[in-house]
Amino acid sequence: MIIKSLQLHNFKSHPKSKIEFPAGISIIMGENGAGKSSILEAVSFALFKSYSARNLPSLIKTGEKKLRVVLKFLVNGKTYQVTRERSKSTSRAVLEQEDRDGFHQIATGDKGVSAEIESLLEMDSSLFLNAVYIRQGEIADLIDKKPSEKKQLIGKLLGIESLENAWKNMVPLIGHYSSEEQFLKGKMESKETWEKKLADKMEEKNKRDVFIGELNQEIEAIHQEIEQLKTDKEKLDEKKLEYREIKSRLDSLENILKGLKEDKDSLKKDLSRIKEDESKISKLETEILPLNNLILLQKGLNNLNIHHQTEKQILSNLKKVNDLNQVLVSNKIFQEEYHNIEKKIESLLKDKEKFEGTPAIIRSLISDKDKTKQEIDQLNQQISETFSYYNQILESNLDSAEEIDSLHRKLEIALNHKLNLLDQELQDKKGTLLSLKNQNQQLKKPLEELKEVEDKCPICQSDISKIKKTELVTLYQQDITSNKKQMVALEESIEKLDNEKEELQKRKNSFQNINMDILQEKIKTRNTASHKLSNLEMKLEDLKIQNIALEEIESSIKSKKSRLKEIENHKENYFKAKHSLENLDPVETLEKEKNSLVEKIIEEDSRIKGLLSSLELDYFRQFKEDYSLLDSDILQEEIDKREEFKNNLNQLKGRVSQKNSIIEKLQKKKLDLEENMKNKESLHSSLIKIEYDDIAHKKILQAYEQKKDSFIELNSQKSKNEGIQGMNISAIEDLQKDLDSLKDVEKELDNLKDFIKVLNYIRKLFGKDGVQKDLRNRSRPLIQEEARKFFDRFNFEYSDISLDEDYEVEVYGPGGKTTLDMISGGEKIAVALALRLAITRVLSGGKLELIMLDEPTIHLDSYRRQELIDILKRLSVLPQMIIVTHDSDLEEAADNIIKVKKEEGESRVIMDVAREEVPVI
């Protein structure tokens, strides 16, 4: 597979990035955290939806709703394009193939696209990551790790680690089924117990069947006796019922006869009282004859009293009306004056409303004017101080904001440029210094080894003379001394540059205190305040004229209100009199009412005198000429006395009116009494004919109840035994079911034993001596052969390379066989890279077109890092290699450079194929 291009939209920190991948070595450069590794992760995501983030939504750029990744790649000469989109709740995947007419769809959906790509590449996501993707530190690990750790690393790449995990994970699985086996064995141990219980229950059931049969015979015999007793009892029950019914009717008849006798005696007494009342009625009728005239007399006297009171009220009202009319006439002129003044004040108040808020507005404007002046003074002071401060920073004497802004921009650009040049120079010198230190460190090791050995080369173990050894020692020492001199000069230069950078940085930091936006805003605010002050002064002049007119209106209102207070009492008297007259009748009406009332008094006087003359009572006749001396209490007493006579008379008449009814009731009671006496004699005769014997009845009842109790007791015993028998039958059935179920358990136990044997066999296959060993034995010669091919291409003086069973490397050179520890740093890098590429080619089935390296120089010292770069320069065996790094030295090995920068949280990709930065959109 060859990658042609990759597009990222809102993937992690990439808002919109497009990257072209030509053939050869592509270096993805950038600082840590710039978003380099996200590009490799996007490739894995596009192909297999594989990612390292905690969840899919976290791949979406912060603040965005959806991501999209488009990858174009070449397989077997055909071009494909995979597109994956993902929002927080939905996903979309499409795989297309290019032909003459463009791209056409061949698979959709996450699963469908992933399956089709696995088929095209002949590898799944796990194999792809192990084969094509070389992770951080893997090259260094193949050099520096212990043999056991290297073996584990290679095993992980080959997938052996998965087999080891499967071997370990099968332990709890086998343990689980072994526990099941023991559980089933425990179940089978209860078989004999259940069989014995079943036999015991069957024996108990047979015995209880015999006992229940005997109980049934006893129950049947008692049942027949009960039926005979029941027949005798029912006959006596019927006689008893008939006897009690007749006895009850006799008792009821006795009560009726008693009641009839009492009613008859009561009616005789009522008839005797009525005769006494008839003699009282005629006497009371004579006593109540004067009652009507006495009531009329009392009513006439009351009416006459009311007429005299009304007459007094009318005369009083006539006087009030005349007095109030006089008040109206004397105060009318003041009322009219008061009304006219009120109208004039109302008109003045309307005029005043036009200027009502003028004083408050004037006070507010004066306050605003003072505040605005203070604000202008403060702003002028701040602007002057800001100009002085900015001129001090810029070392100038300018009085225009535009001039200061222009000078600030120019100086800042120049300062940034100078700082960038200083940073670049510092970085170069520090890099050279670090390289010299590493060289000295590398030179010390062979120098010490030369001092220790006698006549052997410490590297290749070949014979060397003392002169040659001395020349080598001198050469190494001269190189170290020369490097130290350069290092001292570099350190002095770096210190000088650091001091210069610090001074420039301080000046740059002081530039940050210049904020032209704040200065411009203050100038704008001052101009606005000056304009506002002019407007306030113009408004104040206009309002002063309005205030003079307002004062004149207020003076006129004050004088008129003073006059209103002077005549207010006259006005109040006028309206009070007018209001009182409205509540009184006119004079004409009152005069008419007075004359009508006099006529009524005369008529009532004549009527009262006539009534006094007609009354045949001595006390009232004496007042027929002058009734003013008549005592009203005596009159009321006479009326009350005769009212009482009248009430008594009505009661007597009511009682007497019932006389005929009482006579009829008395006759009827006599007839009822005679008839019920005859019925009593008839019922008594019937009671004798029944011949009911209560003692015999009780004996039969007692025998019947005793038999019933025996019957119930036997039935209870039968039910109890049948219940126990039912439990026995149920227990027998349950035991039989349990025994039947053990047949299934026995069969299940046999199957489980066979299954555990299979699991143990499979686990043995997954173990170190099984498939793991087989996979190592099969892969080791293939990896060795491929590693030898790659190593040959690096042009080192070694004839062969081999791997033992633990993947420990041995090389064959001019001095014969040697281990990885005894070769130079550059040779170690070559071996490690050849081994890793060999593993990649074996995993990919020999089709190695692409390899991706993530920070391959990490954990390598400067010497070995440089060796790896030199090897990568010479490595032309692969069509395409993509390397992610922050090491600028790797640029030397690149055919194509892709730079990634992060600004304000967003990653930006810059292509640099021709060593010129060109933004990619």
From TrEMBL:
The two conserved Cys that bind zinc constitute the zinc-hook, which separates the large intramolecular coiled coil regions. The 2 Cys residues coordinate one molecule of zinc with the help of the 2 Cys residues of the zinc-hook of another Rad50 molecule, thereby forming a V-shaped homodimer. The keyword Disulfide bond does not apply. It comes from Methanobacterium alkalithermotolerans. This is DNA double-strand break repair Rad50 ATPase. Residues 412-509 form the Zinc-hook domain. Binds 1 zinc ion per homodimer. Its cofactor is Zn(2+). ATP binds at residues 12, 32-38, 136, 822-827. Belongs to the SMC family. RAD50 subfamily. InterPro entries: P-loop_NTPase, Rad50/SbcC_AAA, Rad50_ATPase_archaeal, Zn_hook_RAD50. GO terms for biological process: double-strand break repair. One of its GO terms (molecular function) is ATP hydrolysis activity. Part of the Rad50/Mre11 complex, which is involved in the early steps of DNA double-strand break (DSB) repair. The complex may facilitate opening of the processed DNA ends to aid in the recruitment of HerA and NurA. Rad50 controls the balance between DNA end bridging and DNA resection via ATP-dependent structural rearrangements of the Rad50/Mre11 complex.
